[in-house]
Design brief:
21 helices, alpha/beta, Rossmann fold, 3-stranded mixed β-sheet, GMP Synthetase, Chain A, domain 3, 5-stranded parallel β-sheet, binds magnesium ion, binds adenosine-5'-diphosphate, globular, 4 domains
């Protein structure tokens, strides 16, 4: 049996996982202010701020929450939602933040106190983005404008954007941070309430405007147009703008061209999936922050399991720590393997990644066929697609170079090796190619992104 004292900790870990599984606004609205109240006889009581939240969670997220808790605790759990009238002792970070926020920021989402430059671990995957963000934060409005950071989910974009925010606040700048989703909602409400002037003035008064996840504007013409005017006005007045996006400006094809070209006129930089050393350094930093001591072999094990998403990496570390606490055991690689068993399953591709599948996916993304890739065709596009297929087969399967060559029209292993090196080097300079390859990988491992 598990004592009720650990329910708080279990729930914090569960929230870490739920944060990965539900979208951000859903998390913020329904889950962020919940706490673990008690856990006894397979009944887990979750404290919520009011009956509205209790009803919503009960109706819509009960089974998701039960699954997460069952996974964590290793046996069936039933949840119960209970309204806690008094302020929870250990509220989630969101409510903490709201209480300590300076009043002029209170209407806007607040910065996560953990998202600072100091706590950001730099590796080759994010060095350029980090340098650019720091440079912008230290030379507001006099540096590259806008700064545009893009990349896959969970790779530190929001962290860097908020780090700029923290630094700007210390310079007493008037900082506005908003997700594109929120900006859209506010805009719609402003139209409804006939308050578009106030809306415009609010955003145009900023010294520093930080917009997160700009891809949300895609296809929302009116909002994007409105944002364009705000952008231009701030830009002309040398106010600093920084933006994050799930994809590059070129790939935001549903945004107005003139907005995209404004983005391209600033500094565009990306964050990539971390390499093994960086993953290890991040795990080390996160366990230091938590004040837990975990041996290098366990950290290495976790770093091997989770490769594409730093948020998931952190979630896995939390899970291993919580699991060890529950079992009152020390953390060993075996225990970590048990704790991550079903996460690893979940993150494993749902389909087996075979050479044939990769050839098909690459061919599709180049609008060619598998037959083209295996053929003798030597036009530029087919050659490139073939090289990308070779690159991905070497990266994503255990096939030897000879095997890969055979799959692609009986080509020599030297050709495969050259193609691999060429693509590995080209993606460091060619953002379009990198996007394309990332897109193919996302299709293979949807849950990792
Ligand atoms: P994104 O906005 O790209 O989806 P986030 O900025 O939300 O990703 O990052 C996800 C989580 O991973 C956050 O908790 C963040 O602090 C952490 N994280 C990401 N990159 C780093 C890094 N380089 N060093 C330390 N923590 C990081
Ligand atoms: Mg983000």
């Amino acid at each position: 049996m598990i004592d009720t004292g650990s329910s708080e900790q279990i729930w914090v870990t569960a929230l870490g996982e739920l944060q990965i599984q539900v979208n951000k606004s859903n998390y913020r609205t329904w889950l962020a202010k919940t706490i673990g109240v008690s856990y006894q006889n397979e009944r887990f009581v979750i404290g919520v701020p009011n009956t509205f939240v209790a009803e919503y969670l009960d109706k819509n997220q009960r089974s998701l929450i039960e699954n997460v808790l069952t996974g964590l605790l290793r046996h069936e759990v039933q949840v119960q939602f209970q309204v806690c009238t008094k302020e929870p002792n250990a509220p989630s970070s969101y409510s903490n933040r709201e209480k300590t926020a300076p009043p002029q920021q209170a209407r806007f989402p607040l910065f996560n106190p953990k998202y600072t430059f100091d706590s950001f671990v730099v590796g080759s995957c994010n060095q350029l983005a980090y340098d650019a963000a720091l440079q912008v934060a230290q030379n507001l409005g006099h540096s590259d404008n806008p700064l545009f950071i893009y990349g896959g989910a969970g790779l530190g974009k929001t962290h860097l954007l908020q780090a700029i925010g923290h630094t700007a606040l210390t310079q007493k700048a008037h900082v506005l941070y908003v997700s594109a989703e929120q900006f859209t909602n506010e805009f719609i409400n402003a139209i409804r309430d006939k308050k578009t002037r106030e809306f415009r003035e609010k955003y145009r008064s900023a010294d520093v405007l930080l917009v997160d996840d700009i891809q949300f504007f895609s296809g929302k013409e009116q909002t994007a147009e409105n944002f364009f005017h705000t952008f231009d006005q701030l830009h002309n007045a040398n106010r600093q703008i920084a933006i994050t996006s799930g994809c590059s400006p070129q790939a935001l094809s549903l945004l107005p061209d003139r907005l995209r070209s404004r983005f391209e006129g600033g500094l565009v930089t990306d964050v990539q999936a971390p390499d093994f050393e960086t993953r290890l350094a991040i795990l080390q930093a996160k366990s230091d922050q938590k004040g837990v001591n975990i041996s290098a072999d366990v950290l290495e094990f976790i770093a091997q399991q989770i490769q594409q998403n730093i948020r998931a990496l952190e979630g896995s570390l939390n899970r291993v720590v919580a699991y060890a606490r529950l079992l009152k055991s020390t953390v060993t690689p075996e225990l970590a393997a048990q704790a991550l068993e079903d996460i690893a399953d979940k993150r494993a591709p749902t389909i087996a990644i075979t050479p044939g599948l990769l050839i098909e996916r690459v061919a599709d993304s180049f609008r060619l066929t598998a037959i083209d890739l295996k053929s003798r065709k030597r036009d530029k596009e087919t050659v490139l697609a073939r090289q990308v297929a070779m690159y991905l087969m070497k990266q994503e399967t255990d096939c030897s170079l000879t095997h890969i060559g055979k799959e692609l029209g009986d080509r020599d292993h030297h050709i495969v090796s050259q193609a691999y090196k060429k693509i590995a080097s080209d993606i460091t300079t060619d953002a379009g190619l990198r996007d394309k390859i990332l897109g193919i990988k996302q299709g293979l491992y949807p849950t990792n992104y």
